[in-house]
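Section: Multi-chain targets

For targets with more than one molecule, the full set of components is provided together so that the structure can be written out for the assembly as a whole rather than chain by chain. Components appear in the order listed by the source. The example entry contains two components.
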Amino acid sequence: MKKTFLYLILAGFISAAKAQATVSPAPAQKGTITLTNATIHVGNGQVIANGNVVITDGKITAVGTAASATGKIIDCRGKNIYPGLILSSTEIGLLEVPSVRATDDVNELGEINPSIRSIVAYSTDSKVTNTLRPNGILLGNIVPGGGLISGSSSVVQFDAWNWEDAAYKMDGAMHFRMPSLLARTRGRGGFGGGQQPQVDPVKRALEQIESVKAFFREAKAYLAEPTHENTNLKYEATKDLFTKKQKLFIHCNIVKEMLIAVDFVKEFGFDIVIVGGADSWQIADLLKQNNIAVVLDQLHSLPVMVDDDIDQPFKTPAMLQKAGVLFAINDDDENSRSRNLAFNAGTAAAYGLAKEDALAAITLNPAKILGIADKTGSVEVGKDANIVVCEGDILDMRSNIIDYAFIQGRQIDLNNKQKELFEKYKRKYNIK
Amino acid sequence: MQKIRFTALLFAFVCAALQLQAQATFPLNDVASPKDGSYAFINATIVKDAQTTLQNATLVIRQGKIESVGTGITIPKDAVVIDCKGKYIYPSFIDIFSDYGIAVPQRQGGGGFFGGGGQMTSNTKGAFGWNQAIKSEVDGAKIFTGDDAKAKSLRDIGFGAVLTHQKDGIARGTGPVVTLAAESDNLVMLKEKAAAFYSLSKGTSTQSYPSSMMGTIALLRQTYLDAQWYKSSPVKEGTNLSLKSWNDNQSLPQIFDANDKWNDLRADKIGDEFGVQYIIKGGGNEYQRIKEIAATKAPFIITLNFPAPIDVDDPNDLRFVGLDNLKHWELAPGNPSALEKAGIPFCISSADLTNATDFMPNLRKAIEYGLTESKALEALTRTPASLLGMYDKIGSLDNGKVANFLITSGPIFGEKTVVLQNWTQGIKNAVKEEAWYDVKGTYKYTASNNKNFSVLLKDGGAASFIGQDTLTGKYSYDGKMVKLSYTEGRGRDAKETILSGTANGDTWNGMGREVNGTTFTWTAAFDHAAEVKSDSSRAKAPLTLGKVIYPFVSFGFEEMPKQENILIKNATVWTNEKEGVLEGTDVLVKDGKIAAVGKNLSDATAKVIDGTGKHLTPGIVDEHSHIAAASINEGAQSVTSEVRIGDNLNPEDVSIYRQLSGGVTTSHILHGSANTIGGQTQLIKLRWGANAEELKFAGADPFIKFALGENVKRSNGFNASSNTRFPDTRMGVEEVQMDAFTRASDYLKQLKAAEENNKKKGATPIVVRRDLELEALGEILNKKRFITCHSYVQSEILETMHIAEKFGFTLNTFTHILEGYKVADRMKAHGANASTFSDWWNYKMEVVDAIPYNAYIMHQVGLNVAINSDDAEMARRLNQEAAKSIKYGGMSEEDALKMVTLNPAKMLHIDSKVGSIKVGKDADLVLWNNDPLSIYAVAQTTIVDGTIYFDRDKDMEMRKRNQAEKARLIQKLAAAKKAAGDQGGGSRGNFQRPRPRLEVINSCMDHRHSLGLLAVDADELENDSY
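Its structure, encoded as tokens over all components, is:
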């Protein structure tokens, strides 16, 4: 309590400063902690009633009803344990206030930028990250924007001093923003209405897509020869794509675009993930056949077409699940700054997805898609102790109240500027 | 210098004059050749008007006018006689929505309202009005120049006279009636000022205001008032030629280019306010709202530009074609018939057609869809003439009228009928001379090479030369010259003999050439006519058409749902009253109201809904929404209190239906945040399928939108660096408010002073200009209108309360109010309400201190707090948004629900009607499958005024219905394509590629929205097009 008071005084002085000096990253975890008597939502669909989770030196060393409590005991009776939630695609740390140009490091100039890396610009001092953690979000994939090939994203954990120690998996995905094949015309829609654009946007988009393919063909040829007089950084940057150490994330939405995405599997053998995928439900079987995963960018959005089922975006996850497509639910909302990730999954659960599958869509599935499932995404032995303890159902905003959160076993500070302001004004109005 | 024009090719036995009437004042550069132009058309079937047809009758014309018409008429000796046996004569058509001879001006750049710059005053030079789009001074007669090429294209489709005008601006001035005769401009003008024209499009005006539909309507309204006031010759105004012309034009027929069913109704409503009955130019979709269209009592002008069919060969493209677009393709040709059936007087215009030659085929299509032929003729003759008060001159074949008439080969709307000649002001214009004679039939053919045949000329230029063998041949005939050919032998041995010559009545003479080069002469004498086939060889399949749905978009109803008595049994009832949440309780709805709340209720008349395991709540009230409107922002000026959202509701926004599915029953549709004092808001109930007036929440207090901060000082987006509109700082925002209320306060004083003065006997009356902008602000000062104010940071919140307190009123609601928690005590003392977002923040500088605990703190301080959407997507999940205050702060579930039901009802002053489940209140109810604050809650049934507007089961049926209807129409299009291909030898016809159906979404331009791929922001569109 006293500590909080101190924070409040501090907040008054430093609220204009960029860093939140009151919220410090936790030191490395040493020794053993046991979270006891909780309902454990493993993340893989399994639920363990009244179980323990043992954490030693940052790793999960035992899970279950048989795991005996040792070390520091934290009683979680009546509470739920979840894997830390993962944002599959976010600009946090690159973009602070969207309307202020100086705080925007998302889009680089140029069309083909494979050598651009988001991690080097990622700011651990963003005020946004501290508002994600009290909602259970502990990791995020930081994605650059702009051009056709935007560069590579890295996964970070949200409790760090700087990007070096934030980095959780470096450059795991290359991002291709496919130009839209939707022949959008200006004017108020319908046929007859609206003017035809001067350049056929679909034709132009297909040419751009072809230029990306041409680039990869050149890169492949370049990489076949180990020595070069002149180094080409752009080609060099694609090396991991060809060895499948890196995935190609293709940002696209409609069926024709996704069908073209399949091309990149067939021609280059890349591991493909579709980001966006608004119409992915229409070709779920094809995606499954080609092992293409989907990141649903924004579940809380309107249907694509006025004729679509009014709940289409909400029920898309259930349709993908049924077809066996690996998918993640993401939240790229700029207004709430992504903190509603769990509630997007909750809505999917309200529209046909099983609750534990909805949880997997924001934990284990994104971990698989981002190539970090060996380290995180579920509450299983051997993984990093990225764990949240929630008072109730994490998918429901009424009970999404996070009591403790651990990143690599470190119990993190769940305070943030907003809570500080809350405390400050509770004091002003004498609210208990 | 008088131009001499040549008329078209002269026909064999008619010798038309060049100019019928010489103009006395014009010098002559020729030998004077005075003539009377007297013709007698005999043996014709004369259709004098739609009701009167004379058989074997005579029409006599002289000096460009009809001298006599009838049977048994003495033919004047000096008349040229034309035998019209087998022919029909009709009055020529009249088009009263033409721009013939008046070029449409082109816009010269500029005019954006969000795009920085901004043009505050008119660029029109001279003593005209303040707004460039009010062009009432334009006199079409003075800018008219005949154009015979264009005239010919209109004559060829049957028109003889048009009312033309300059299609530019909101008030477009007057237009003349001219004939399409190949005469001098002086002689074709029948009436100099025949009508005055208006529209909802500002055309080439580069001035920023108006930038929206509602701004356009407000401008029209204010101009009516200003013109009235101008009659008092106000010294301050000086000479205003625009207002003067406006007043002068009022005595003419008033034609309004509305161009869409909803705009038709909007235009009619403006007219009603000022006692004007417009003649409304419709948009071809009137059939979709025929009941409302008929209720306008307006005469209509409709066109025949039916939508082209679309290619349906690509399922990926079809995905983005709207059901409404497909249905309109199918139903549009039925528009004229729908108007006729509804008893609406209407004219048919040739306007809007891409190809003038589509006119007759489309008209026939309209007849196939049920338009009667007599109505069609009336719509092209008598009705337009009568509307202009010119039926004494044009529109029928009666003595003394202008000699504008058509000679046709048969009944005018017959499938194979052709217009042969179109006479205008007594001058012949050939249209299809070659069809005057039907040359088909059998001829006796003799040739100097001794190869003689009996020749049969058939349809389509095929001929049979019948001698010992029957040879196949071809022929062509252009009214005078003929060509024939026949072929002997087959394959490689085929030898073609070619013939040409002239037709001299029934006998044709000419020369031929054999394959070996020898020439010969030939004669063909008409022997007997071909068998007459009935007009339509194939019987047409009866029309099978889809139903009109309300509204005309997916999920529209075939039949509107009705108010019912409903008994919801055994539900968990969230009353929002002191009873709190009642388990296992029944609610009875009767006559649209909540009739009883209790246990074991029964009512024999009621439809019973089992509420077991379900939760019943009051309908959600969204304090801040931008759905269901044609425009949202009038940002051209900093003070636009004269604009009204209610002038431009759009009942067809699918957001209404989608939000019903999220339990919303009442929405407060706000003006955007583009300017300090925005427009008047409109409270609606989500009565899906209703019209604009029926959507309105009756009896609610009027509100107005204000805005503060970054948006109104234009700090964000594409206008950030180039703002020229005052204010540019929060200091300026305060001065805009101060100035506006000071002016409004002075205005009220002036009105009062004038009223007192004018009561005194003998006093010179004082006329105060009625100013709708100040009037709305005056209502605020008089506590008859209430403010909802877009606001973020504490300084501006305090400042605005200071202004309100200075002028003695209470700022009713602060909306957004993300820093409300910082000054909640001060707001409480002032008496303001707060309507906020649950957890939005950091999307721009003025929201970096926004916190999700805001609602909770304000609630704890004692403010009346609501959670609003301001977003077409989030409005579907307002229950979830409210529930976030349980997480952020620990609000009780009941209090959280009140933030989206009772609390907004209170701040909108409608809590006596909605917001809780209480006997006597409106039956606006939502049945949820779960605790309404839970993420898992899905609305099952949404009831407004005792009418079930949304129901999950019904929704499932509608999905199936939509899919089936779409599939049927796609099949129909595929069949049409195949038929076109079969007929046209692989021609694509006028089929077009499908284009994605965009969904226009309005927003306040404040933050990003998560809308669909096909959503376009309405303001973005405006900005592009301006």
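Residues 135 and 402 of chain A are 6 Å apart (CA to CA).
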